[in-house]
């Protein structure tokens, strides 16, 4: 009880504080767009006519979480005669989410008891879906008080999450009544089994895998002639690379006797950075835009534009993905979707799919660029390397397929809630 009261007090204080700060910021500032959006949502809810069908309310923090929700919402709408309202916490989601025009777009209000009570009373949802880890205590309590079923979709937790702490009892108590937790990974399922043992859970996989699978199946961007050009050699692709991954490349270039083509797609494709890379590999690179037109032999293909990497991965044998040494690990799901094993640095604690890929032998990691160089050298140039690469490719393909969500296992829970 004291924690819940303290939480509510802090929310009321923060609501006032945010409005004071907003006075000193320009109108287009993110905070003022948020505050203005919430005011518009209040006015819209006041004028909202009675619903004509059962209404599903889905909440996403921002654009990424909405993209996780969208396939589930579309499938749910295809199977049920419903209205859909989507709320956002961040302007990035509210302003940029692509959704059908007949879906309702709202901001979630501040998580005070009075705001939550107003929001739910006016919206009148029959069923609620929260994306990932949107644990808003006041809204959850009002839903429970009104016996409105709710489900968590694509939930992902780490061992350090606040829900595990003794002081988070009020949150755990509210979450006990969740209809289901659709868990992104085994670690999340394990954590929830420990703190909410009686609440249903399903291991449904990561929605990013399903989104990536959809992109994978899109037509490519290269011409038939360019595709043949890619296929002339086995391509080793450095994806979204930083300086540490570039160091690995410089060490393996002398070992390549022509069996492989090295492709470098830097995280930063600005002219300044491209020139910097070219200075570290003098005479050994050719920019992709030129290589496609008139390829030179035995050069590192330097990707000089954005949006191309996911299509280049289609012709890769192995990928070295950047960010795992000193920055945030970049997207490893894209190459894995194509059966391309990935190598990266060990700074990946915030990306559970990385450790799971390592466990599945779909990925290899290293603590330092030197160690990664040694691993890559063994993989590419050791006797029997073709069989080894093929093994990791098979593991990558199997890992991706096993983690691609199946909406069919969750939809019955949603439909059951709507037909009560």
What would you say about this model in short?
It contains 19 helices and 14 strands. By secondary structure, the chain is an alpha/beta fold.
Describe this structure in words.
The relative contact order is 0.10. The protein is elongated. The longest helix is centred in the N-terminal third of the chain and has 22 residues, at about 1-25. With about 425 residues, it is α/β, with parallel strands linked by helices. The chain has a seven-stranded parallel beta sheet with strand order 3-2-1-4-5-6-7, with helices on both faces. The chain has helices spanning about 1-25, 30-45, 65-80, 90-95, 115-125, 135-145, 170-175, 185-195, 205-215, 225-230, 245-250, 270-280, 290, 310, 335, 350-360, 370-380, 385-405, 410-420, and strands spanning about 55-60, 80-90, 105, 125-130, 150-155, 180-185, 200-205, 235-240, 260-265, 285, 300, 315-320, 340-345, 365. The protein is about 45% helix and about 15% strand. It folds into two domains: about 1-205 and about 405-420, 3-Deoxy-D-manno-octulosonic-acid transferase, N-terminal domain (Rossmann fold, 3-Layer(aba) Sandwich), CATH 3.40.50.11720; about 220-405, Rossmann fold (3-Layer(aba) Sandwich), CATH 3.40.50.2000. Strand 8, helix 11 (about 245-250) and strand 9 (about 260-265) form a beta-alpha-beta unit.
